Amino acid sequence: QLQLVESGGGLVQSGGSLRLSCTASGFSLDYYTIGWFRQAPWKGREAVGCISSRDGSTYYPDSVKGRFTVSRDNAGKTVYLQMNSLKPEDTAVYYCAADSHDLGSLSLETYNYWGRGTQVTVSS
What we know:
about 120 residues, mainly beta, 7-stranded mixed β-sheet, 4-stranded antiparallel β-sheet, globular
């Protein structure tokens, strides 16, 4: 069973950057669309980006477009979420997820494997 682990979260000042990593022990992530999502207290989980395995296409919601970038390493073992120009409203638990059908979607329902999340806190 694919198990995803996020890392790289922490505390950063407004305007700063963080890079999150998503790995899967013993599995290649090359055959999945990998999505990044976040959930702030008392809010629903929302997508912040995803990367398809078919052609490496990336998709972002307007809320983070131009600030967040999803990428893969060449070994197929890690997917990254680079977050720049962070704002206090980016504070949330960030999750990576895998879609085995590789739909390249930002919809939560298409993802069938989830990590446990990593906390990102942006101070003002």
